[in-house]
Prior knowledge:
The protein is an alpha+beta fold. 49% of the residues lie in helices and 15% in strands. A hairpin with a 2-residue loop joins β8 and β9 (400-410).
Amino acid sequence: MGETGANRxxxxxxxxxxxxxIALFPRRNFLGFFRFHCETPSMLDTIRRHSRSWIAxxxxxxxxxxxxxxxxxxxxxxxxxxxxxxxxxxxxxxxEYEQALDRAMSxxxxxxxxSFTPKMAEQFxxxxxxxxxxxxxxxxxxEANRLRLLVTPDEIRSEIMTTSAFANEQGQFDQTxxxxxxxxxxxxxxxxxxxxxxxxxxxxxxxxxxxPIFVEEMVEAAYRxxxxxxxxxxxxxxxxxxxxxxxxxxxxxxxxxxxxxDRFMTQEQATYTALVxxxxxxxxxxxVSDDEARTYYDNHASEFQKGEERRTRHILIKADxxxxxxxxQARATLEQVKADIEAGKITFEDAAKKYGQDTTSNQxxxxxxxxxxxxxxxxxxxxxxxxxxxxxxxxxxxxxLHLIRxxxxxxxxxxxxxxxxxxxxVNERHRKALDKVFDLATAVEDAIAxxxxxxxxxxxxxxxxxxxxxxxxxxxxxxxxQSRDVLNRIFTLxxxxxxxxxxxxxxxxxxxxxxxxxxxxxxKPFDEVADKVKQAVIDExxxxxxxxxxxxxxxxxxxxxxxxxxMASIEIKGQPTASPPFKRNGTIEGDxxxxxxxVSPLFEAKQGDVLDPIDDMNDWVVxxxxxxIAPSTDGLTESVRDDLVKGLEQxxxxxxxxxxxxxxxxxxxxxxxxxxxxxxxxx
Length: 683
């Protein structure tokens, strides 16, 4: 049976990918990969199956990103486009890089629950990571085009139809939603589908590069490497012990201050003009009629259903479920209490006050109105089986043993319109104000894109700007115009630069800002920071004395003295600490401890070696390798072996991928404009 056009394209892609891989990796362990993947018609299906989640994620990020970019953006705003990097014939614009950086920052903020700051991004090297990712994207696209990897319309259609951003409430592809999403993002189907095709191309080629590597012969060596243990003797020279031996004079302090003024600077500040689009501020400009509220009520009846509620009391005696004696005693007490209640000797309320062991006992065991799903299952089942006024049998929960009484029942019902009218009016007014925020944000962005100033854009939509500052990067306050997100963005702007998109605040508000002035950090006067300077100098000099003493201890040990002799020769009191056995990852067998800083150097040392002093936050550690403990292979079980194989394969596969990308960079050529890159920072 002859191949269809689509099948021929798939076969051609499969053949190209296999030939490409053989050319890149002419080694014996690649033969198994070729036979497994390249001799079966399912190669691309396998790659795509493993890559599908990655593609979907990429597409979803792409959709989310386009929604985040209100209006036309920088390309049509008159702003000069900078090129931050060149990849072969491709140019990576500042806008492309900035969007990728924003996307990464959003990801990490979600990961860290909002606490991820630009400073943390700097420490984690996010700028470079994002740049590498964008460059890799261009490299792989160019390589896929060079290999003429084909993507069929059916493949593109399949990816789009399984993208959740275009699905309706039933999870099915919705053509109307697809069109609306692209329209809202100012994309045409042709341009978006071209992007999808490129994503699939990259996934095919990147997936093909995930080459399984045979590593069986490396397993035992890796096991020995990971499980070798060592013991050490070490002694820490604490800088605090030397503080009383230093007393810097005023001249020394002022000289040190002059040399370290960068440690005593005012924070950078900014003044800016802000236009705030906040639904709370716009609610007075929208109206919701009683008829609109009634229509909402009629169309959303399910929102106003109230389940059955029961006014409930209980008497709790706490008892550990695992302590049978306590359980028996609590049960006996409650049985007597129930008998006394039913005999009229005591009321339920008084019994709760006398015997109850939770916070409701003072209120006669009153739990208030309870509803389904609020209480633990055994308690709920007993409560909803009771008639009003009846006392339950003893009920056991993880909290202890209970007696329960239901005083009153409110049946399930639909709330009257009069009951909920006020809340409907509030909610609908807020919804209309929120719609107005989105409409105004689009109008403001379009006005700025046409060359209008922020003040003129504000006038065009009937709003006024506010002046903010001078404020520092960390001067966060409650108004939207001084939120963390706004301040982060402000300090990425150049003087007289305006944000071209609204800065989202709290999920509902948007702030446009124009940077009026940046005030550079200034040195603080010496008199203002004199105490801090003195403490810093004392810390530094004490650390220097600790280091000098550590050097002398090392010298004595290397001269052949034992620890007792060496420490006595330089008048150090105490004795070294003998560490428990530890592995190269720092894990310890048994009790004891060892400073993290000395673990790796000790695994590079020979038995008996004395390390150079190691800095531990201004304290200095002297260490000697006392013993090397070779591991037994008895612990190399099948499960341990399997874990090692997986780890080795993953690590070596990543190295293969890095080597492949490095070869593409070398052949295609990559240049980076560091000056342009420096103007873009995480926000």
